[in-house]
């Protein structure tokens, strides 16, 4: 099994006629993802690669019954586009766009919580369940079907790790990019929990970064729910310390955001910590994951 | 963007937050006719001014006239002082702390407050966290009276005194996309509650909604900018590309923050010294790739550049176009090592090969090669 | 409270809704110097002005000068005309319908729109409901761009033309607690989209938030009020007690709308004729009970009053106090029949007994007794 | 069994120190309702009849774990009071106050929906499960324990009907006043649905009024879910027709709001329609409800 997306995922694409949206929609189609509708205001009634385009999401939902959406619109329009999807009750939405204002994201996430829509992103490559469904921009050649769940803050880093796992013959159930932040629709601990609940996933690889406290949350969750082996890699060991946001940053985040602080917390939770992608397939083999 | 204290206080005034009477001093003449004692405060963006001696109490004009030039001449954490705010000295009965910031964990605007404000608030937060109240506001519902009451009871302040402060903070968050608004201390004086200091950060990502305000604030800060930004940083700011200067000699460009930080780690592990951190972000195209190399070219110590790319949303053919554009213009500026794989990587590497630019698929070996070239260049 | 057309249009103008140029005519002199043709519109609160002939097109000053006094002298559904609005006649290309109202079923502000506006909109609604779009807005989220787009596509209007109208309607709902804002027709003219008519109802329950506005609007409407309200209604309005005049001779006071309506039904079934409907509402206390009887006392035809009480939130001892206060002041004004049970009913009935006021527990038999007394009084 | 409230209901009272709140709180206490907390800003730390009073709802919830709230604050403060309760996640709230601005109610109900709080009211006597729990102001002597569910728009009318039922020896499972409107937190159809789902309730009595379309909704629900016998009474047969709200009222409500229109729709749904309270116990006996 997979998490979040599978062979029954029916996808609506917002911004399907833009240059990025059109390029990525074609790749998703080639991969076998069921794209059922595109939305571009003003282009309703036309079509894209045989997929009907609508002026508004509600009409697209009534006529094509999507159960997931992916958004490729520019940052200043993401709030409106996301609210429109959430209002129709679509249960899963991937926001690929970078640079969405933080206040917009707070409002989108509050509305999503109230309507029961799960947001992945923003600033994320999205989700891929190799061989089954691709809801995003992951380079497909770097992933293959398998039994390891992979979750990452950084998109590129997940490609990096996917690639060495795949070269070593170790595939993935689902690969989830949660996005570059600083506000996240889905947090690492939540994705880890989903992987723990997925019977096919045998181990989880979690990729994090310096800054914030999301990896610490994940460590706390894993410590209290030691259900499956977890391997983590935290990058930014050599990065300069981030600029502090006045006193408030320190009051809220304390001094836990360093790479070393995160590595320590993960180790204390029983997580195996790698420092290079190549160590990850080795560690997976050691805990019994077979190629 | 961070605001200078006096800029933040101007916004405070517009939203009805009481602040002390003050004058932005532009010459010695401005110091005459003030009601002394006054506090002279260097206007810089960096924190820790009090501990750095950049805030001075002066009891009369004579003292002010000798202190003012000293402040103007000083640097606070490498930042020169270009402006001084003279503010009437207040008799303080108690110092509170009040801020509103975007909290990443609750994904909500969060009020943080304490009846133990002032310089040691971080220590209070560590030693006695129960003396700090954190109150998340529902982003759609907005600030409600019951929330103001809750904070007022916690601080032991009358609700009606606290209301204008909390309402104004929330208005400023909503109206200007503020990510942090901090009043420390919020002082209980004989004249009532006053915001003695003001910190304000606006969300650069929301600039499109506040173009005029950003432009005006930047204009005021301009003389400061030039001072502590090197020419790489100036270009990066202008082109809106993430660029952080470091102290080494190996330039670095990446198409993602995570992969960039990991490449930094690898450079260090291989014994190299990165000259910078530079990432293109999600909208990476040929033009941004070219520009990022132009930014690095401002740094005379950099002779070698590692380009670390793994394409998902980013197309490698676009990246190769950007690199070759730079190389056509500056054929001998850098030795380039390109790690390239992912979306349209074959097409991209074909373009690089035309320009005889070294490229490979494996990050660790490409980093090793770049570190080696940088070492040779340093000899 | 309902607004007159010109009052509503003043609010429209303040919120950027384009309306035709107009003059509130206060004398014949105002009709000079206008650009004819003009539309003269009687300013009354009742609907159906067009069909009643209270809106007249005049082609020049001479015609205006003869029409204006006619309009001033007329009544529309019993309401005298005290003001006339002269509005520049527009060349209409198409008539749309646009309103925003509080929808009870979805518990949300609801936009209602049609490309087939004008006088026959109710017929469109019955015959071709698919030509009307109803769009509920999330009360916390507020109006969003995607919702404006949806309506614009439905009406076949450019989004940018519709935006100021929808935004202003939503602002007016939020800023003034409007329960209905209607533009019919929203006319497509050579000068663009214009609100040719304007209906606006404000929520009386929210008066405390808009005291100044309500007072001013009422002041403007004042001369109208006196006209068609009898003295009972005037007192009821002043004291904020629900009072609806009917045509019979048996007065009625109840402590709830449901029980009041049921008592009305019983009076009719028993062969009686109610003179009014009057209910005290949830905050019923002795003072309101007394005042409601004072209101009924204004009607000279009423000699008998049925008081129908069943106490939950209402305390029967309070009610009895209120009744006896009235009886002390006006001992022989009414024959009173009181049905009283529920909270503190024993205490209440003991008080009534002191004043020899008839009371009982069973509503049907008390109503029968009241109808009988009213019939005797009429003989 | 009962609906909405039972012996495990733990009640928080807002406005417990006001004259109405204090009077009614004492009556509820005497009836045996578990009042666990009162809230009056500024009186935190004191107590009322042994019940602790708090400055804010959150603290009351943390310390006394109520699962229902009843609000006795004046109309202009109801919005704030209700939002405060909803934010803590209390699942049931009765709003007794009349005259709450309509926009305030829309916002309260939207927030309640997003947080999963059921609102009963405003302008309602509340709920009574005779002999078990009283969350409101119903005059207790007019009700007794039994097997009939009673739901009413008008509070006083439900006392009227409860009284004749009780005199005839027919008791009630729960009596729900949904409130005088024009905006309702809970609608008649929803309460009917709850009574249908309650095993102890054998029949439902529904009391309605002229105006609006709520009774029509209930008729539609009963027609498609003919699970238990329903008896209805609609008052206002002799009332003058209400003033129309411009065209919009007619477009929205059509011409369905008359008493006769409602009676016809209910009869078509198989509902027995009474014209006087006294007919109701007779009809209940006819369908087999025993005294």
How many separate helices of chain A?
10
- Our count of domains of chain B comes out at 3
CATH architecture of the largest domain in chain B: 3-Layer(aba) Sandwich
Rg over CA atoms of chain A: 19 Å
CATH topology label of the largest domain in chain A? Rossmann fold
The CATH first-level class of the largest domain in chain A comes to: Alpha Beta
Q: What percentage of residues of chain B falls in helices of 4 or more residues?
A: 25-40%
| Number of H- or I-type helical stretches of chain B | 12
Q: How many structural domains of chain A?
A: 2
Tell me the Rg of chain B in angstroms: 25 Å
What oligomeric state do the depicted chains represent?
A: heterotetramer
Q: How far is the N terminus from the C terminus of chain B?
A: 41 Å
Properties at a glance:
heterotetramer, A: 291 residues, alpha/beta, Rossmann fold, 2 domains, seven-stranded mixed sheet, 10 helices, 37% helix, globular, B: 379 residues, alpha+beta, Dna Ligase, domain 1, D-amino Acid Aminotransferase, Chain A, domain 1, six-stranded antiparallel sheet, four-stranded antiparallel sheet, 18 strands, 26% strand
Write the layout of secondary structure elements.
The complex is a heterotetramer, with 2 copies of chain A (291 residues) and 2 copies of chain B (379 residues).
Chain A: E1 10-14, H1 19-31, E2 34-39, E3 47-48, E4 51-54, H2 57-64, E5 68-71, H3 75-87, E6 92-95, H4 102-115, E7 118-120, E8 126-129, E9 133-136, E10 145-152, H5 155-167, E11 172-177, H6 188-197, E12 203-209, H7 214-224, E13 230-235, H8 246-253, H9 259-268, E14 272-274, H10 279-286
Parallel strand pairs in A: 1-2, 1-5, 2-4, 5-6, 6-7, 10-11, 10-12, 12-13, 13-14
Antiparallel strand pairs in A: 3-4, 8-9, 8-11
Helix pairs in contact in A: 3-4, 6-7, 7-9
Chain B: H1 5-14, E1 22-25, E2 38-42, E3 55-58, H2 61-73, E4 75-76, E5 79-80, E6 84-88, E7 92-103, E8 108-114, H3 121-127, E9 132-136, H4 145-155, H5 159-176, E10 178-189, E11 192-195, E12 199-202, H6 211-228, H7 231-239, E13 242-245, E14 250-254, H8 257-269, E15 276-279, H9 286-297, E16 304-311, H10 316-329, E17 335-342, H11 345-354, E18 358-360, H12 363-378
Parallel strand pairs in B: 14-16, 16-17, 17-18
Antiparallel strand pairs in B: 1-6, 2-3, 2-6, 4-5, 7-8, 7-10, 8-9, 10-11, 10-12, 13-15
